[in-house]
Amino acid sequence: MLLKQLKATEVKEETKMMEQTLVLIKPDGVQRGLVGRILGRFEDVGLKIKGVKMVWVTPEFSKKHYKELLKKHFYPWLEEMITEGPVVAIVLEGLHAIELVRKLVGATEPRTALPGTIRGDFAHHSYEFTDAKQRSIKNLVHASGNAKEAKEEVKLWFTDKELHAYKTVHEKHVF
Ligand code: UDP
Ligand code: MG
């Protein structure tokens, strides 16, 4: 009886830690042919791909996705960049997935992003450079920044039907 109760509590705790987060491989990542290598980084740590699709973002949709950044000086450059070609949109699921994906992605500015991170390994330019050129930072990926953003972004980009339920081999070894 006690064991059964303990197990139920454990499952509840695991469910709380299980998170979904939105990743976009931005047009620079797609055009540079890095989709496979970037997706591989997330698969390597055991994150589950819940949904994936290719989307050409419109200016209207960009304003929804980047609603918190509309007043920033770089927003017009950001919109130009995110609408210049298709992106690959992915919902990833795993324990503490929001924080984990941000760690794998690295800092916003490729100049300061650490080696080993996606942005640190595949780009190197700086805010100083892109501001002088009046361009957006091209840092290959977007990843939800926190739990609120993740919830809103997964809902904005994917319908329930586009998110798939299946078991990965990683789950066998974790749970
Ligand atoms: N960005 C930019 N110039 C800046 C700051 C941000 O071009 O000075 C772009 C960059 O592509 C970044 C995106 O705007 O990824 C969104 O900015 P945010 O601060 O949310 O960074 P992120 O969450 O992507 O690390
Ligand atoms: Mg952000």
Task: Provide a brief overview of the structure.
The chain has about 180 residues and is α+β, with helices and mostly antiparallel strands. About 50% of the residues lie in helices and about 15% in strands.
Mean pLDDT: 94
Q: Count up the helices.
A: 10
The first-to-last residue Cα distance is 21 Å
Q: Per CATH, which architecture?
A: 2-Layer Sandwich
SSE blueprint and pairings:
Elements: H1 2-17, E1 18-25, H2 27-31, H3 35-44, E2 48-55, H4 59-65, H5 75-82, E3 87-95, H6 97-105, H7 118-122, H8 127-133, E4 141-143, H9 147-157, H10 169-174
Antiparallel strand pairs: 1-3, 1-4, 2-3
The protein binds uridine-5'-diphosphate (UDP) and magnesium ion.
Structural notes for this entry:
The protein is α+β, with helices and mostly antiparallel strands. It has a single domain, classed as Alpha-Beta Plaits (2-Layer Sandwich). Helix content is 48%, strand content 16%. The chain contains ten helices and four strands. It has helices spanning 2-17, 27-31, 35-44, 59-65, 75-82, 97-105, 118-122, 127-133, 147-157, 169-174; strands at residues 18-25, 48-55, 87-95, 141-143. It has a four-stranded antiparallel β-sheet. The longest helix has 16 residues, at 2-17. The model has no long low-confidence stretch (mean pLDDT 94). Residues 69, 74, 77-78, 108, 127, 130, 136-137, 139, 142, 145 line the site of uridine-5'-diphosphate.
